[in-house]
Amino acid sequence: MQSPLIIAISGASGSGKSLFTENLFNAFSAQGSPVQILREDHYYRAQDHLPMEAREKNNYDHPNAFEHELLKAHLQSLREGHNIDYPHYCFKTHTRLPDTECLEPAPVIILEGIMLLARPELLPLYDVKIFIDTPLDICLMRRMMRDVKQRGRTLESVAKQYESTVKPMYHQFIEPSRFTADVVVTQGGKNQIALDVIKSHIQQALQ
Length: 207
Ligand SMILES: Nc1ncnc2c1ncn2[C@@H]1O[C@H](COP(=O)(O)OP(=O)(O)O)[C@@H](O)[C@H]1O
Ligand SMILES: O=c1ccn([C@@H]2O[C@H](COP(=O)(O)O)[C@@H](O)[C@H]2O)c(=O)[nH]1
Prior knowledge:
The chain has helices at 17-30, 52-57, 68-79, 136-150, 155-177, 192-206, and strands at residues 5-11, 35-39, 84-90, 95-103, 108-112, 128-132, 183-185.
């Protein structure tokens, strides 16, 4: 198999990375092209050794919260045509789940996550770098709704975490990483023109 094309999609939490990734995935699946999605969130470090109180106070918006060494090794394995043991992470317990999932390489790999463009050593592994640029107030509103509905949080805890880590770390790490991107996408996960442009670039690169 030809070496896979690796697309990295980054941006703030709540910017629309997951939706953009799903929409790109659906566009390829509809025409029968195999695509593999990898989420940086799955590479948050295991914290079984810490009590829940300490886990709740952790800074999850610093690059060191992720096991990027493992992500890098997995991308290299997929490039070489090998399967990987993809970790699973639980946002409610703030640690890895015991099970992993066997993922196979595919011609297109879409990777999404907040710190993907903030680690210089990861950048050479990507073929296309995309930044989803959404105003922070919109990201916060979306995150509030999602974290309360899906991640077992209260409005108070979301607001507190946002002020203490999410917002300052965004300005320190994520916002500057925008300048490493090949494409900056406005209007979140539903920007159809951006989806079409990126899809046609991928199609050409695969020929
Ligand atoms: N352009 C958009 N218009 C309306 N809702 C959107 C748009 N982009 C994303 N969303 C919604 O906002 C929420 C957060 O988006 P998501 O893709 O999960 O963000 P991220 O993965 O960057 O944290 C989701 O409920 C998603 O459906
Ligand atoms: O245990 C955890 C791990 C992460 N977070 C928050 O998640 C977001 C990143 O996920 P998105 O899907 O991109 O929103 C990050 O901002 C962390 O603050 C967490 O709260 N708990």
